[in-house]
Sequence to fold (389 residues):
Amino acid sequence: MSSSLSLVGVRYSVVFLVIVAGLCLWLLLSPAPLAAQDPTEVPEDASEEVASTEDAEDGEFFDGTDLEPTDTDGSSEEVAEQNTRPHGVPEDSYRRERLPTGAVFSDFVVGPGRISLELEPGQSRTVELVVSNRMGDGRVFSFEMEDMTGSETGEQAVILLGDQIGPYTLRDFISVPYERFYLEHGYRARIPVTVSLPADAEPGGRYGSLLTSIVSNPVEMGQQAGAQSGSAIISRTGTLFFITTPGEIDRESELIGFDTKNGQRFFLQGPIAFNLVTENTGTVHTSPYGRITVRNILGEQIWVRNIDPWFVMPRSLRTREIAWEPEFLFGRYTATAEINRSYDDIIDIKTISFWVIPWKLVGAVFVGLFFFFLLLRFFFSRFELKRKG
Fold:
């Protein structure tokens, strides 16, 4: 009888362990709930200023090669003088083309986002800027030039200086034929931009942003929630100009920081964000590039990310954030950044370590151990094991 009870108890114990193991496995593999997002959520700030300075290096880039008009699908066509031009807006000779589609996106597009040229003292160069109107109606566009500089904290790629003269001023050396022009919806205008350096220009870099702006219709803005009737909203986007004059140039850049965001060393789960901090103490901008490699506790490479060049303004810091979104992590990891300074083939190398302990796995293990020891205690308190014979 005692032997039969023991066998029954063992069987129930095995079944109970299988159930606990299955529960732990379900906790471990079940996906984390996603935070709900409200698709109708809009920013509280009604003012609108589009600044394409932070991510300009990731967008369209112009290196000085002459641009030719392109016809995307054969539907582009030149447009004669527009009779709908508002009173007070001067006639212009900008070349206009119809966009491939007349869809309304309530925005306008300016490209390229960054133009980089090398000019000798006294030399001039004309490049092309393309402005596309997708607002839904005709608008008056305006150009203005501002100097720019880098950030001392690294939080911003560039800082526009408004009416101030920058240490690497370019505002007086860039010009367009017409500073204001009218453009109908569904068309793009090709703008010739001329960069002319003085004959006494010193070697080094000059930096500025040509800002393209529109003033929204006051009546239209007054109909929007939260906007005062009759108020006007200025929307603008900038094309960054990087002009280098050859000669005795001081190029000096270095990767001074590599770490996880906020210096965190323990994570419950991904994603993992890395921060690269580069300091430029030279007189011209640099374009560092490289890669980040992550290895596990066994030294096996489990992730590598090639990093495209990003610009760092002279006499400034620049922080670049790289995100890693793995499916599952557990244990200790080592990340190594190898960043080329973009000159003289100098590579800066920095390494950090961090731990990832998934909360689901930890919770499942503790729950499993708790029930396992509880089961052992129950088993030994109810049954007595005797040796046969």
Remarks:
- The radius of gyration is 31 Å.
